[in-house]
Amino acid sequence: MSGTSAGSAAAPCRFAHYFVICGIDTETGLEPDELAALHRWLEADRQGRDPDTASAGENFEQSPLKRTFKSKVLARYPENVEWNPFDQDAVNMLCMPKGLSFRTQADQREPQFHSFIITKEDGSRTYGFVHTFYEEVTSPQICSAMQTLYQMHNAEQTNAASSSSSSSSSMDSLASSLDDGYSPTSSSSSSLSRAAGSYDSSRDTLYVSKALCLITPMPFMHACRRFLAQMHSAVIAATAPPLPLESYVYNILYEVPLPALGRSLKFHGIYEPIVCQRPGPGELPLADFPLAEAFSLLGVENLVQVFTCTLLEMQILLYSQDYQRLMTVAEGITTLLFPFQWQHVYVPILPASLLHFLDAPVPYLMGLQSKEGTDRSKLELPQEANLCFVDIDNHSIELPEDFPQFPNKTEFIQELTEVLLSFGFSANTGAPPRTRSSPGSTSSTPGRERKSATLRQLEDDGRNGNLAGEELVVLELLQGNATLERLQALTKRTGVTVARVEALRAGVKGQPTDGGNQTGGEEEELRKAKLNVQLREVFASRFTTMFADYESFVIQSAPDLESWLTNREQMHNFDKASFLSDQPEPYLPFLSHFIETQMFATFIDNKIMSQWEEKEPMLHVFDTRIDKARLYNIRAPSLRSSCYQRCSILKESAQAIEQRLMKIDHTAIHPHLLDMKIGQGKYEQGFFPKLQTEVLNTGPSNNKWCHKATTAQRRKDRHRQQTEHLTLDNDLKEKYMQEARSLGKNLRQPKLSDLSPAVIAQTNWKFVEGLLKECRMKTKRMLVEKMGREAVELGHGEASITGLEENTLIASLCDLLERIWSHGLQVKQGKSALWSHLLHYQAREEMLAQQADSPAPRFLERRKSDSSIAMPSLRVSLIQDMRHIQSMSEIKTDVGRARAWIRLSLEKKLLSQHLKQLLSRQALTKKLYKRYAFLRCEEEKEQFLFHLLSLNAVDYFCFTSVFTTIMIPYRVVIIPIKKLSNAMTTSNPWVCVSGELGDSGIMQIPKNVLEMTFDSAFRPHTHISAIFKCQNLGKLTTVQLGHDNAGLLAKWLVDCVMVRNEITGHTYRFPCGRWLGKGVDDGSLERVLIGELVLPSGEDDSARACRTPPLQRSPSQGRRISITSLTGRDTKLNSAQIQEGIGEAVNNIIKHFHKPEKERGSLTVLLCGENSLVAALEQFFHHGFKSARLFQKTVFVWDFVEKAVAYMESADQVGDLQETTEAMKMTCQSLCHYFNAINSTSRNIGKDGKFQLLVCLGARDRLLPQWLPLLVECPVILQMYEDTAMLRDPSTLNTLISVLETLHDFSITLEASLVKGINL
């Protein structure tokens, strides 16, 4: 569908371009299929054998009746069409994907129909419709050649019986499953196999396949199918057709026009008329493949899941025995993408010779023919990490992991089900989708059981739509059986009747092919057409709803087309962040992935180009629908709702089709006698005659519509030549467009004409270049989004990245690495190519380590941290990181392990280094990969690793934030200040580490864990160190440190606490610089410390200069020491600086709440860290504070609060507060209540800790601004503050109160570590 307009705009409007006959060339005789030989060459190359010897000679092991022989295009009419050159190799290969097929009278010889598609390099499409039947072989040379081959085969079988060979490659099963070798499924059928699988020229009649094909510019599937079926009926009928066959071929090639837009057309087949119609300019584009059949084959839910995979541009592999089923499902899915178009490799029928294309490291939609009885579990595919496997015949699918659901999926499926039921189709939703996350995702049913199960489904399962030729086989088996009625009802659904089947078998009557009742056939066609359009409207309606406001987010920054095309790669065309922020929350997982796809980028490109060029037809239809929806449904773009909106135009869309089909707009010229030589092409029943080339190669010269079309074409060409010099040169434009649209666009269809190894190598080279370009674009995007400055220049409003966007980009990077590791792969274990390589590397390294008799693998580095004096170095080892992942029981699959390993390496800034190390084992890489693989292209590999190295410039927490439930070991090191205190303590210390995801609980540190390290000057340093394991805490925020004050050496002056995540290596420093002990400092036995992330010392100043500040790192905190303590005098600030500090602290809290909830980071840092609200208010309270020491006793701000509260309580008892207002009384009581609750806590948090708690609780409960005037009015202030103190200046105080009141708009939640033990 995505290219339906191709060929119709530029080409004259003929219904069909070519009529083609493919089959055996009796002059050249039996030739082994070159493509099968090429396939053997590729297989041998993959397995490391000599490809030239493997592909030479014939394959005598296989039964000759099952071998592939070369088919040829026997005739085509006309010889060539100027606007659509004939591609002989491609047409021959797709008409007969398996080559010639031979049968004897003992075999089934039912005719088959299938269609195919050829996608050209510019994206335009040509459709082929093929009717294959069996014709008796009359050439004695061919019969005797087949006899000789049988004798050689029997001799080979006798020799091979004694010896058996086993396969060596882990991926041979892909080839064998597609090999058409004869293998009986059970012992009971062995006698049948001898009869059906042998040939003796004296007693058997030999038949060979022949294909009749129509090649058309548009997918008129039903019309072509009926024409070809009538053509075959004429051949096997007992009486000759009314006119020579040339008349009918000439008629459809030259006298039947394409229907005009919005019109219907009737033309005449051999026995009855055929009707087709074309949608109007405002309707959905033409799609004639039966969607009901696609839904029947897969079930509604499965089809929606496959559709979602297609939208997200995953690799989709369809698998079926029937070529037409592959085509029906592929075309059905791409049809439903409107207004988007599939931009990548699209091969609905993949010939056996193109199996190497499954290696393609790009998104693809391909169809693979399965062999009867093949078990899916034996089918090994080159890459499965991002693969959606669709087993059409068994109605089942396997989905990739981490798969986002389509928005409103349940309601969507419900609406589709109702449409199907309204047309009488079963709404059975098929087998449930199997995802790759479960280890037993592939069925282990033995082949025979599976086959019988499938047969049972064919007998009584309502999901089966059109069964092509198989229904006839089943009918034959069940003649006279009670099941016949049910099967008859089933086949009727497809417009086939048992009467027709019998007539075809007898070959006597030559009656119309679609049953006797002509109106019944037309009614059925009308019903299918109405169902098709209604199903498509439901899908289109979803996109109209989801993207109703997309135009508001398109960024149109270029002044003209040329400058836009030139700078396309640097342009920021769509404001993704704003668009996502405008969407309902449930839509985000899907939409954040979808707006990164190539199909969405191309859609936006078309929108921007529509300013300068004619609007692309599908975009025009979509925009018209959005405008229409706006008229009826006026809503503000910001008010997005996830409420499901049903499609409202189902009835009118069906009526438009009904009107066209009921009232035919145009009837083509009837077939008529041609000016032919008499006596040629004599009718002979059962044989397709040799048609007269002279009459079929040239069309009429006086055809009105043909003349009209060519005149219009000439006019168009003249206009284009006139305007060409004014606008951008077409070649230049095409070049820019090819580059602008990513990889895969110019590889949408593998080239079928020339399949030499050189061409295959060239294709793979394009893939390598494409992968490198994609890696460059992805890493640049990740850096730009994260670092900000460049992002602002490119049109982002603000230098920020949401967690959702970041996660999408990292998932996309994981997918890219899997595709790179899958390219050219020849040995794989499990579904993930990257993890498979890592396992091979691990096994090799461990083996080398054992041989060297060393306990640990080599290539270990030590990564220093800034605290290298205190922290032992963390070992940097690829295998160590693998072991961390292997020990995570939460991850069940290889794909999950590979993704977790990538995330961990990225967070540790070791991704490039680890991959370089992995690829340094060149012998291993050569063993695992073919010569053309990306990983064996040295220059590209180096560039790729360099692009990944650039990601080290930013901080990611992509492992910590995703695997939130895993157990992580943390190392805690407590560093004392040795000069001023004991290096050791007799008390029992404890810590409690808190992070964004929770806290560790109180961890007692054993006394005897003193460690000694030496600095660079070999001075010894002693500290306390311990390791504990707990559930992932996320980014660390606070540490509570305390001790029980036991023993003689209880007082302890702590410099800082260091905590390191032993898996990710992230180290946090929690500065303290305070005493813990009774009778020293503020008497605290525990402190809450605020953390900051420590940069690895490997990053020098230049690296730090270009880093993004981590999302929640608190600024490096100097020791926060009481203003009146030992060194406090040096840190006094003036009043202006203090006011500025308060304003900044409040501003930071407000900004915090204006970020999306998932992006906010730690509020504790903003409340209690340095430059925080508590620190700023401490400075305010210390200003003008009388610091005289009475008898060497230090005075703290908490002492002032304590005296003020004591005064209030005594005043309340005496009755001095009676004159105050009720509100003032309440405030007074609240301050006293909070003060007493803090003072009576069992925690020994010291006076500064208590003040910090009072500020935090006051801010949380919106009481802080009310408490300040009470403190100022207490007489105690005169004793403890100088006249110049800011606290005593009314205007400054009022300013402070108004600033603090701005926090009342937000709901402040305090971390549990801060308020533990406080009972309010």
Can you walk through the features of this model?
The longest helix has 31 residues. The radius of gyration is 39 Å and the shape is elongated. Strand 12 and strand 13 form a beta hairpin. The strands form six sheets. Strands 1, 2, 3, 4, 5 and 6 form a six-stranded antiparallel sheet that branches. The protein has 1320 residues and is an alpha+beta fold. Keywords: Guanine-nucleotide releasing factor, Membrane, Repeat. GO terms for molecular function: guanyl-nucleotide exchange factor activity; small GTPase binding. InterPro entries: cDENN_dom (IPR001194), dDENN_dom (IPR005112), DEN5A/B (IPR047278), DENN_C (IPR043153), PLAT/LH2_dom (IPR001024), PLAT/LH2_dom_sf (IPR036392), PLAT_RAB6IP1 (IPR047277), Run_dom (IPR004012).
List the helices and strands and how they pair.
Blueprint: E1 18-23, H1 34-47, H2 51-55, E2 72-77, H3 88-95, E3 102-104, E4 112-119, E5 125-136, H4 140-160, H5 172-178, H6 190-196, E6 206-216, H7 221-236, H8 245-255, E7 264-268, E8 273-277, H9 291-298, H10 300-311, E9 315-320, H11 323-335, E10 345-347, E11 364-369, E12 387-391, E13 396-399, H12 409-422, E14 434-435, H13 447-460, H14 470-477, H15 484-492, H16 498-506, H17 518-546, H18 561-566, H19 576-581, H20 588-594, H21 598-609, H22 617-632, H23 650-662, E15 666-667, H24 693-696, H25 704-724, H26 730-740, H27 757-787, H28 789-793, H29 803-822, H30 833-851, E16 861-863, E17 874-876, H31 878-886, H32 894-907, H33 911-919, H34 922-928, H35 938-949, E18 967-976, E19 989-995, E20 998-999, E21 1003-1004, E22 1010-1014, E23 1020-1031, E24 1036-1043, E25 1052-1061, E26 1067-1076, E27 1086-1090, E28 1092-1094, H36 1101-1105, H37 1135-1154, H38 1163-1168, H39 1173-1182, H40 1197-1214, H41 1222-1239, H42 1246-1260, H43 1264-1273, H44 1276-1280, H45 1290-1301, H46 1312-1315
Parallel strand pairs: 7-15, 9-11, 9-12, 10-11, 13-14
Antiparallel strand pairs: 1-2, 1-6, 3-6, 4-5, 5-6, 7-8, 12-13, 16-17, 18-23, 18-25, 19-20, 19-21, 19-24, 22-23, 24-27, 25-26, 26-28
Helix pairs in contact: 9-10, 9-11, 12-17, 17-23, 20-29, 27-29, 27-35, 29-32, 30-32, 31-32, 33-35, 37-39, 39-42, 40-41, 40-42, 41-42, 43-45
